[in-house]
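ok so i was messing around last nite and threw this chain in just to see what happens. nothing serious, just curious
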Amino acid sequence: MDLSLNDEQQLLADSVARFFAKTYTVERRRALVASELGYARENWKQFAELGWLGIGIPEDLGGIGGGPVETMIVMEGIGRHLVAEPYLASAVIGGALLSRGGNGAADLLVDLAAGNLTLALAHGEPKSRFDLAHVETRAAREGNGFKLTGHKAVVQHAPSADRLIVSARTSGNVATADGITLFLLPAKTPGMTLAPYRTVDGLRAADVKLDGVVVGADQVLGPVDGGHALVESAVEKAIVALSAEAVGAMEALLALTKEYLKTRKQFGVPIGSFQVLQHRLVDMFMALELARSTAETASRALSDPDPRYRARAAAAAKVQAGRAGRLVAQEAVQLHGGMGMTDELAVGHYFKRLMAIDVCFGNADWHQRRFADLA
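result:
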């Protein structure tokens, strides 16, 4: 498989690198995550003007086309600079669900590509862990619409989202894939309350409670009882995108650690001259490159018609991202000494983000078992 970028993809990579190098410093990121919104709206508008929010969206709807490889390029840049904007939640997951959801979603895709819409997927629940089929939230028929009751947990970027894509069970048992339906709810929907908080990596999430929320038939996204397949497809894309983000974060950590070992002196010489520390840097580099190759392979595999091949490639990428991310992050902290976990240095922020990536949509152990089950 050829993993090299074509000319257009290389131009995109250069654009991503230039923009983030100019706008995203550690100090700027710290200020953004401490703000009320948690990110900068002007950055979001810039994402739209650069075309990043339109990746995977047809040109006639305001997008730029492209696909998983272009998403991978942007996500690597996001990981490299610890970007706080809700790109994964809105452009990757939300865009994927709107693209397959039908039901008048074309206008929303236009708004998404233009930077006028942010989305959040409210699917996980307190007892669901990583099982996408476990949905206890109920949607009971009421007239021509539905009444939603339930509890969604750790909904990433929900506090700032314009609309939430909420899953609820319209039929079947708690853990069956069939019978799940998706609903598109405005942020201020009566009966829906959010309990917002900051996650360990400084981003925003919320628990969402639905207390008899009445929705119309026109708010159904995709087929009734057929939402699981939509969520599964979108999460598969998110898993690969997160793996690419982890690669970017590991790359930044390796660069920071190499530079530190060149400047920190002990016994009158840079500690980077000590062979044992050089060996540890090599271990970090090898872990990074293995994660990079599996993430790139998984990004290209998303275009393959074989669903089992796509799923295995995504699972493999998440396993390597989780294992390599933990190794690289822990080594970076240890080689920096105690100050590696302080708020003043970027190292601790990368560590926290990599740990958060590992548990998002299934940790390394869970995806290793999934990879084996798909054999």
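not much to say yet. The longest strand covers residues 145-156.
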